[in-house]
Fold:
Amino acid sequence: MINFAHRGFKGKYPENTMLGFEKAIEAGADGIEFDVHLSKDGHLVIIHDETLDRTTDGNGLVCEKTLEQLQKLNASKLFPDFEVQKIPTLREYFEFAKDKDIITNIELKTSIIDYPGIEGKVYDLIKEYKLDEKIIISSFNHNALVKFKEIAPHIKCGVLESSRLHKPWEYVKNLGMEYYHPMNFVVNKEIAEKFAENNIGLNIWFGKADYDYSIYLPCKPSGLITDYPDIVKNFLD
Ligand code: G3P
Ligand code: MG
Structure:
């Protein structure tokens, strides 16, 4: 089972920062999840929200700032005691991850802003770093996943969902995707068994709360995406 750190080690470090990714690996994560957007000048940047206000000392839309402007910001607003953290680029992350034995889950954050061409840009970089086998692309925007598959059919994709779909295993199978990424509340053992019967992997994600993640082990998930990779590591050991 892959122990994915959600936005890095989000529970204890600034989310979607290189520090959070490094600390996740140190804590025992063997997977990292993060979110990508496009800057005004077309660079792939790692940040969760469409806007800068919650997690950085900047404000306004990510897509209205150039990379140079974005990289002047401090992305550790939620952890003011930590030193300044930059908004990472996807390239910077790949430099960090390229020789590590980790699976990277890249979430295309295109539900609100449909960044034209983001799928091709992400794939070009995956190809450049030869990380094809170590990537899962996910999105709540399932059209973006279909688009990604058209560009790179061999890269594994996960369907993100937080609603209670009717027969989600049929939906995911029809889309031709390899994984279902449900929020924990919308999955149970019966649903999980249907995914297993259909050879579709299950990576369950959790919001920030004090969950006992281990209660989901009977679902035999292929991965858990949590804010606390240290807790998951403990019970996996
Ligand atoms: O990929 C799982 C999770 O990251 C989806 O929700 O809002 O944290 O990106 P969010
Ligand atoms: Mg995400």
